[in-house]
Amino acid sequence: MITSTLPTPDSVGLHIAIIMDGNGRWATARARPRTMGHVEGARAVRRTVEHARRLGVGTLTLYAFSSDNWQRPKAEVDALLRLFRRTLAEETDRCSANGIALQVIGRRDRLPATLRRAIADAERATAHGRAMCLRIAVDYSAREAIVRAAAQLARERSPRADQPAFARALATAMHASVNVGDVDLLIRTGGEQRLSDFLLWECAYAELVFLPVLWPDFDADDLDQALCDFHHRERRFGALPRAVAG
Ligand code: FPP
Known about the structure:
Layout: E1 15-19, H1 23-28, H2 34-55, E2 59-66, H3 74-97, E3 100-105, H4 113-126, E4 132-140, H5 142-156, H6 163-173, E5 185-188, E6 207-210, H7 220-231, H8 242-245
Parallel strand pairs: 1-2, 1-5, 2-4, 3-4, 5-6
Bound molecules: farnesyl diphosphate.
Residues 20-25, 38, 41-42, 45, 62, 64, 69, 80, 83-84, 87, 136, 190, 215 line the site of farnesyl diphosphate.
């Protein structure tokens, strides 16, 4: 059971997305194989999910494997896919007990059958969760999602080719069972400052926070710090600053 302090009112219901970068460098700095960085990264995932749940975050979307990551050495890809399967199996009960609905977004057709089954089992077992939606992006490409959604709407000759209809098609294109809406805060660890084809549509008005910390070292304080930064930003969505608008 995740021990619960009261959720921070400011963070309740937010959609936070994280590009978890730096696993390889974390391992290399310790003269360990890169896959050890991913194993340690999975521990950081667990810590982050627990803390986000405590804070009352509505949706947490984690970028675990981009469609471009297939270009990595086969041994690393295989180790990552095995780690996802193991982590899903290990975390399903805890998610279920803590009201966390787990969903995997991205393409399914290129994943091993064993992983596809583990995803379906985890999604089924946690579907009742209402406290937080945890989305793991695996074989995910935002550009591909956008192209697929556009093709879908064109095929349907939809009379409602507006933004809500597109957002729904986008969710369907990447197997998300619900459209959870825009990202409020996007965090990228590891020091790079780019989006790497992650949630390009959904991040239209996201606040971006780039942190130097390598993902395996990311902890509750880092998430608190990023949220503190977020809460000090003025989100204008294209309108005038409050002080000027009066
Ligand atoms: C980026 O670091 C990280 C990944 C491509 C994999 C992310 C995977 C995990 C955090 C493991 C577990 C996740 C789940 C959801 C079970 P990198 O390898 O690009 O690091 P580098 O930039 O230092 O090389």
